[in-house]
Specification:
Largest sheet: none
Number of domains: 1
Structural class: mainly alpha
Oligomer: single chain
Radius of gyration: 26 Å
Strand content: under 5%
Number of helices: 2
Order of helices and strands: HH
């Protein structure tokens, strides 16, 4: 009985620290948390793709200016 109580006492802090995020050691599945992580990742991807598009556009403009100035 005493061993069982000690085992339970040792497990409770571990369970309390679980987040539901498997990437941070969580062991409990949470559909809303998973959907939020997916939404956050999609937003980061959209931001990076937007920045990539702007950078490519800026690069093309600068290359056109270089070509114009060098007489090509």
């Amino acid at each position: 009985m005493k061993t069982s109580l000690l085992a339970i006492a040792a497990v409770i802090p571990l369970l309390a620290s679980c987040t539901g995020d498997p990437n941070s050691g969580g062991i409990f599945w949470s559909e809303p948390a998973a959907q939020q992580r997916l939404s956050d990742r999609q937003q980061r991807l959209d931001d990076v793709e937007g920045q990539t598009s702007r950078t490519r556009s800026d690069s093309r403009r600068k290359q056109a200016e270089i070509d114009r100035l060098s007489g090509e």
